[in-house]
Task: structure prediction
Amino acid sequence: MKVVFAVFLLWSCAVIAAAQNPFSGADALLPQDQHAEANGPALMLGEIEQMAMAGNPEIRVAARQLAVVEAKIPAAGALDDPSFIYRGWGVPLRRPWDYNAAQNMFMVSQTFPGFGKRGLRTDIARTDVTEAKAALENTRLSVRVQVRKAFYDLLRAQDELRIHDEHVAIARQAVQAARIKYTVGNVPQQDILKAQVALTRLAEHLIHFEQDADLARARLNTLLGRDPAASINVHGNYAVPQHLLGIEDLEKIALASRPDLAQAQAAVEKRRQEQALAAKAYSPDFTVAAGYMLMPSGSDHRNNYMLEGSINLPWLNRRKHDSEVAEAKAKASEQDAELDGMRTAAFGQIQEALVRVKAAQRLADVYHEALQPQSEATLRSTVIAYENDRTDFLNLLDSQTTVVDIDLAYFQALADFETRFADLELAVGTPLPRNDKEKTTPKVTQ
Result:
């Protein structure tokens, strides 16, 4: 009987405690301490880009491919291997072992390509190197853009967690005030339920923020060639240029800077060189040979030397070479058309990226210049009114939620601008000058 009474007493105490603290369920979901920064020093964007250029696996592969192509240059214009020839003439069938009765010739021969062929082959190999260098630069540019995006995603996630911690502190203060009023019956049950939902939403936000931070950290580590689970901390500011270059200036920069256009231009040059080399097929190749000849025993001149020359006759196989020239010409024409198409596509990418950058720029300015100050001023006014019993708890929660949403949307707008600006640099093919107007990190009004 005493055991039953004790259990009933504990249950009654729990019910009374829950009635006195209706926020306990949602409050337990929120962190008790602020989020600590990741281990290690905070890295700036420039430092991370240098690390990526040195450690990114894709860049290392492209660099190795360039080294392979460079190693082919010496062999491209080299002569074919010389040949050693032995001939035994007049060996008696009845004495096949009697080479003293035969003419024994020992010769060395070398083939020389027609005039200009070796030079063109070397030029083609050098053009391959130019293509490989442009491919390497294109890989570096792509990695750099991906690094910038991952950097600002992680920076945004870190700032979102910081803002979340500040809003949790404000929410706890509001909840404490609500508890006091609840105990004296000044807060209806509807307000209590609304407060509980608001606290639970903060816990929901936290899950998404932590997920975003972990994903951005994994992407950034992968781009740096590190363990995706390694700890990394970033530091930096958001900056929105006051002025952006016009479309004509951006197109001129792209024509001079885009690595993929440089690679395509090198491919065009290579096709033209291959066309010239195909036309050289009508130039005959020459083969010369020299050797020593040992005559049969009893000959007047036992020791002799010999010279030999040969030439191929491409004019007798004109149909084949005409076809090769036509094929090379068609490939060159195809490459020209591909280059024109790439230029047109590049201009389209620049235009689309510029439109998105301008939209992101305007959106960030709206949050920075209008929405954020207005929401913070509204929250300050609502807090003062609530403390003086001139508004209800629901209005306080609504103001608090509005500030949270606008702060987070402002961070998202800043990160979106950096992402769009990185896409514009990718479309142009080089980092762009920035007349930066730094956006200060939003501070939460308490």
Q: What stands out?
A: The first strand starts at residue 42 and ends at 43. The mean pLDDT is 81.
